[in-house]
């Protein structure tokens, strides 16, 4: 879902897409950067005795927060109006609705909150995530903006650039 958000917002910023459709904006997740997780895996493999560790940041963020940070990275500010299925995210400068709720994206067995406890990894291996949530979102937005800019240029040259992502 995170990639869906950054990709869509970059495309919206450039006028290549009208809106981003999401489910539960209040779902909370423990998102972390792959580089941090790979470092943790490497540390686990250096141990003489195999043990189980939780690879997580220990910090939660909502889908709504992810959208806000990604939008801000693109120079957009989202204000929320409505409740439940009728909630929308409006880009404040343009007044356009850029986030809408679609019931298809509500998971039948939705878990409201996911949070890992990495304390054992910190205590035994000295591992802590180094890349913050905001830095991770920023990195994703920068890369997806590059792709969207390429698609925009292709369209400006008269070619078709399809959006196969949702």
TrEMBL record:
Top-level enzyme category: lyase
InterPro entries reported for this sequence: GDP_Man_deHydtase, NAD(P)-bd_dom, NAD(P)-bd_dom_sf
Superkingdom of this protein's organism: Bacteria
Domain NAD(P)-binding span(s) in chain numbering: 2-140
Record keywords: Lyase
GO process terms (BP): 'de novo' GDP-L-fucose biosynthetic process
EC number(s) stated in the UniProt entry for this protein: 4.2.1.47
Obligatory cofactor(s): NADP(+)
Entry's Gene Ontology molecular function annotations: GDP-mannose 4,6-dehydratase activity
Family affiliation: Belongs to the NAD(P)-dependent epimerase/dehydratase family. GDP-mannose 4,6-dehydratase subfamily.
Name of the protein this chain belongs to: GDP-mannose 4,6-dehydratase
Species in which this protein is naturally found: Candidatus Electrothrix communis
